[in-house]
Amino acid sequence: MIRRMRDVALVSVVLVAAAGCSDSSGPLSAARNLVGTWKTAFPVTVYFDNDWCTSSPSTVFSQSWDATWVITKGADDNTVNIQMNFSTSNNQVIAGCPDTGVVPEVSPMFLTGNISGTRLTLMAGQDSAGVFDFTSDNIQGDFDYTWCAAFCQREHSANRTFILGKQ
Fold first, then answer.
1. What is the dihedral of CA 120, 35, 48, 150, to 10 degrees?
2. Does pTM top 0.85 for this prediction?
3. 13 located within any domain
4. Residue 71, exposed/middle/buried by CB under 10 A (0-12, 13-18, 19+)?
5. Are 94 and 48 within 8 A, CB to CB?
6. Cβ atoms of residues 87 and 72 within 8 Å
7. Domain-embedded: residue 75
8. Phi and psi of 107, rounded to 5°?
9. CA 8 to CA 58: how far, in whole Å?
């Protein structure tokens, strides 16, 4: 009788443990609350690549962005809305033929952020616009957005230099 009760208890523990497990591949809950204002302490260099006058995209221009993100709650716990305001400086022509073909980005940009754990993936409509990691007071990663019309243009930072601090 004691052995049977022990077996029933063991089966109960296994069933309870199994019920708590999930094989869902959905996003992890946000590790931190990102709602608020975030700002770059130092301007970040953004590079512009395009195929304006070449058969494949090449880097033709760079500029510094002093950025502020205003993050608000999104449609669910794993989504945020981001208004990215930025001012530009230090415009540098890297290559051209004779023009760079660069179409400057307009501030503000309105983005959506998808959160999984401590990872923030930016979206501009249906297009990816970068991947960032975050803590309670730091967001760091690379902005990386490509759009195409008559030609394609990629705007991107490099080496995880896009760093914002909570204000």
1. 90
2. no
3. no
4. buried
5. no
6. no
7. yes
8. -100, 135
9. 67
pLDDT 10s digits, 2-61: 544 444 444 443 333 444 444 456 676 666 789 999 999 999 999 999 999 888 999 999
As given in the structure block, the two tokens for residue 150 are 């008559």
In the numeric block, which tokens belong to residue 122? 């930016």
Q: Which residue has the tokens 């970068």?
A: 130
In a domain, 122, yes or no: yes
Total domains, the chain: 1
Question: Which residue type is seen at 70?
Answer: V
Separation between Cα atoms, residue 46 and residue 75, nearest integer Å: 29
Q: Which domain holds residue 89?
A: 31-166
**What SS3 state is found at 37?**
strand
**Residue 114 and residue 79 in contact, taking contact as beta carbons nearer than 8 Å:** yes
> Is 79 domain-assigned?
yes
Count, residues in the chain: 167
